[in-house]
Automatic annotation (TrEMBL):
Enzyme Commission designation: 5.6.2.4
Molecular functions per Gene Ontology: 3'-5' DNA helicase activity; ATP binding; hydrolase activity; nucleic acid binding; zinc ion binding
Protein's recorded name: DNA 3'-5' helicase
Source species: Saccharomyces cerevisiae x Saccharomyces kudriavzevii (strain VIN7)
Top EC category: isomerase
Alphabetically ordered keywords of this record: ATP-binding, Helicase, Hydrolase, Isomerase, Meiosis, Metal-binding, Nucleotide-binding, Zinc, Zinc-finger
Amino acid sequence: MEPVPSEIASKPKRVAVKRLTKKFLNTSVLPDSFRGVFKFTEFNKMQSEAFSSIYESNENCIISSPTGSGKTVLFELAILRLIKETNNDSNNTKIIYIAPTKSLCYEMYKNWSPSFVNLSVGMLTSDTSFLETEKAKKCNIIITTPEKWDLLTRRWSDYSRLFELVKLVLVDEIHTLKERRGATLEVILTRMNTMCQDIRFIALSATVPNIEDVALWLKTNNELPANILSFDESYRQVQLTKHVYGYSFNCKNDFQKDAIYNSKLGEIIEKHADNRPVLIFCPTRASTVSTAKFLKHNHLSSRRGNQKRINTSVSDKILYECMQQGIAFHHAGISLEDRSIVENEFLTGSINILCSTSTLAVGVNLPAYLVIIKGTKSWNSSEVQEYSDLDVLQMIGRAGRPQFETHGCAVIMTDTKMKQTYDNLIHGTEVLESSLHLNLIEHLAAETSLRTVYSIETAVNWLRNTFFYVRFGKNPAAYHEVNRYVSFHSVEDSQINQFCQYLLDALVKAKIIELRNGIYNPTAYGNAMTRHYISFESMKQFINAEKFSSLHGVLNLLSNSEEFSVIRVRHNEKRLFKEINLSPLLKYPFLTEKKQSQIIDKINQKVSLLIQYELGGLEFPSYEGATKLHQTLVQDKFLVFRHCFRLLKCMVDTFIEKNDGISLKNTLLLLRSLNGHCWENTPMVLRQLKTIGLVSVRKLIRHGITNLEDMGNLTDTQIEYYLNLKIGSGMKIKSDISLLPCLNIRVKLEHCRRDNEEIWLTFKVEISAEFKSSIWHGQHLSLDIETEKSSGELVDFRRLQLNKLQSPRGFKILTNISSKLEKIEFSIHCQEIAGLGKTVVYSSDHLATQSLTRTSHSNKDLNSLEKCLFQVTSSDEEAEKNM
């Protein structure tokens, strides 16, 4: 057996911080140029004691401190230290701030942007557009999530200069390592620590008992464990009393449980609120309303005796009635104006009890004396789940108002079975474990593509640098998933070695990596999986997909991706999707053999219908009660589309590797449709133009305008007449159309010879484009050039950025056709715009039979065939034939 980490590494050092009794450090200890960073003149107790370790040292630091102790200031001190050390050299300084959620990233971005001292600040999350991403990469401080940074660092060779400049990594909420998403955080920190030189880590954590293990993992210069700064609850600015109440339930229905929690609220408020502001976190929007209504009818003491009637009007009638009793609710479903009024009234004290969803815990500063978490499960990604530890800690962090009092109270209401779990969490006694092993196979594939793993030995060596390795050595019983694949009969191989071997074998079997001469190398499939951030199960489906898939087949393959496993079909929306499924405008409905609607209860059905709902421009069902589901449908649709683009791009790369021209063609068509939010080859392509909606499309169809080319032939006046627009409005639409590129493709037969039963042809292909701008609607435009045979075989595929086509480009293609009737199709399309492309088709029956007979034995060049007939058609007409 290999030695465990504790046997081979020096022990982490807990820094003996200087305990200050009365006097705290003044910001005057900093240079004049740095003092303006802080809005105060004196650091608090925790910041003062941590000052020397953060600002006067370059060693890695792990800070364990309770919520509300002012930890963010330590990040800022670390940045100031780096500025001082580099002599304000902003051209060669990169700092990465990593937080587990987009909301935390945005909060920090608001605090630091547009610049921190003289350093520019940018943000990278899944919501960041391509243009914003390019801008953010150039900033000195990059605020990002683990997933976005993982995606970027998987392309290490492309951004090697950027990574060389990274000197400081700031990690917020590092205790999220225990959650499933924490594996990504663990991987990127391991990657940065092993591949970057002279890099410093400052990581903040909630209180955990084994913080030494984190320090043992994040070693300074890969040698000495990080320093540990540990602060207990006494360092909170507001002292907090915390309680966990467990309740037994005889019901399984979450709504019934919610009602039982409501019945307990009065007792909790009476016992802990002390007639001061109360913030109740509820699991759903509906629960915030029902909780407020319950308290209005059953807890009349919520109003203070000297409170005045609230005269401010809100649009929501129920909200207004509750507010008159000093009670309100707050969630994303009410209007922005109503939310602002509620927030202001709560801050001024007119509202004493506020019921909110957990989203209020981040971004909106509404502290209360008493915080109640009413149930520890909430709707998350369309299903009921326990709150994450981060969610709970952030909600608890709202308890206590520093400007009014020195004490606060937090209450967690949960199931009896979960009481001990939350007791451990709030008192910092739950041991932090790794979750890397749960999806290690995807990360091993990525490391193989990065060439950090190329053998079983390098795989194990890479794992030695992870937090998982530290914890597995100390507590292997916590990792039963690993033990399932380990044989205890062999004494030569370690358990880690066997686990890695099992995963590498699985990757080889799936054709994601291959073993050549004892070295593991990524296949084209593996590189695509890594580049596009695809799960192992989805990648296997793409690789094993049937050849020559139709558009319908491609849509089904996409809809069955594992990435959509978080989507749930709720009971109350089955009718909604049945109505959508029965729409005559739906391209591919789910029907029984008798042409009746199938029961819509599967994830892939819902995903497919959400995509088709958007692309077909379907109207939202109008049956009674449907409108209540509209916001949920929009959210689910956003979640689906967020995954679609990288999945389809990975499918494109997969079908290129498989030489599957038909599947590739239909995947590209679906990708263009998703980019344009409309089905290609339908009049819905007109919706891509600014100000053109469904109503306008119908008007244009009545006048015979069905595609972008038709629209481009109209005058300003015609557009205004057809759409009943004001004079001048047609010019704006015409201007939008004029920015569309005009694509051209020319094909010339240069050489032809016969070899037995095959005819070998050499074509010269020339592509060109006329365009005013290579950007349309904020997107950089790219071109896909595909050549395929009518048999389905892919002959050639190329991708080119439009801005690289300032002048025509040419290339040659050599291919063969049989003597039977066969066609070769050459096409060019703009990937970001549906309905914009050209196609050239060559057919073998255009060759003169006599000429072929005459040259069948001589193999002479057929120069006389250079002017062979070609058929130029719109891509729409030809694409329709192969669907």
